[in-house]
Specification:
- The protein is an all-alpha fold.
- The chain has helices spanning 2-9, 14-17, 19-32, 37-41, 45-55, 61-76.
- Helix 1 (2-9) crosses helix 5.
- It is elongated and about 60 Å long.
- The N and C termini lie far apart (41 Å).
C-alpha cells in the first residue's frame, strides 16, 4: 500500500522508484529482527511515506497543486 500511495501522490521520478528496493530492505531487516511493521513505520503510515518522499525531493501531486495555485494568485495580483 505504501508504494501505491507514493506512486499516486508523487511523480514517476526515478528517485521515487529507487526508494522501493530500499523500502524492501528495511522491511526485510525488520522482519528478520522480529519487528512489527508499525514498529518500523509508526502509526501514521502516510507520514512515513511522505518522509521518504522528502528524502528524494520528489515533486508530489499536492506540491504541484500548491505551486500552481500560488503562481496563479501571484499572477492575478501582478506580483
Amino acid at each position: 500500500m505504501a508504494s501505491r500511495y507514493m506512486l499516486n501522490f508523487a511523480s514517476s521520478d526515478p528517485g521515487v522508484i529507487n526508494l522501493f528496493p530500499e523500502m524492501l530492505d528495511m522491511f526485510e531487516l525488520a522482519a528478520a529482527e522480529g519487528r512489527d511493521v508499525l514498529e518500523l513505520v509508526g502509526n501514521d503510515v502516510m507520514a512515513f511515506c511522505d518522509g521518504l518522499l522528502e528524502g528524494v525531493s520528489a515533486q508530489t501531486w499536492t506540491g504541484k497543486m500548491r505551486a500552481k495555485m500560488n503562481e496563479s494568485i501571484h499572477k492575478k495580483l501582478g506580483r
